């Protein structure tokens, strides 16, 4: 093998190694894609995974106990409320998932009334979950003193557009919103004036 052939082979090998390295590096640095279920990477245990649900609920109560400075009796009562309410919430989540599946199943339907009916069923199931969680929140309030209730309310995303969190439609800086952090109105009409 001549020197020229060796040189060409070494250059070719170097280029191939460099290309391989660049491909591997770009594959690893690719940002993770958001999940298709809209949870933005937040993982929730499956409704039928009871052990995981219990662990998640225990972590929630532990976090609340820490953030709200709960007395041991209060934490125990919150844990008791969690355990008694969890089966109802899980059952409602299963109904919501069934309603979501129904929407997926009829998405290709020609008749809009079929799709509209499936969406109404989903809205109804979600509304029932909202009512349940509201009732459970009121039950938790009976355990807390007024200062703890105020702190608890600060933790809840009751109004994400006014709570200092990033804005959304109508939120700070968003379309139709009040003034955002830049001091400009998010409403297009106001920007043009």
Describe this entry's structure for a reader.
This protein is mainly α and 193 residues long. The chain has a domain at 50-156: Four Helix Bundle (Hemerythrin (Met), subunit A) (Up-down Bundle), CATH 1.20.120. The chain has helices at residues 3-28, 50-68, 72-106, 112-141, 146-155, 188-192. The radius of gyration is 27 Å and the shape is flat. The model is unreliable at 35-41 and 165-193 (pLDDT under 50).
Gross CATH architecture of the domain at 50-156: Up-down Bundle
Shape by Cα distribution:
flat
Beta-strand content estimate: under 5%
List low-confidence stretches.
Answer: 35-41, 165-193
Instruction: Calculate Rg over CA atoms.
Output: 27 Å
Number of helices: 6
Helix and strand element order:
HHHHHH
Per CATH, the class of the domain at 50-156 reads Mainly Alpha
Instruction: Work out the helicity level.
Output: 55-70%
Distance between the termini: 78 Å
Query: What is the mean pLDDT?
Result: 75
The CATH topology of the domain at 50-156 is Four Helix Bundle (Hemerythrin (Met), subunit A)
State the major sheet. Answer: none
- Quickly give the structural class: mainly alpha
Task: Report the count of strand segments.
Answer: 0
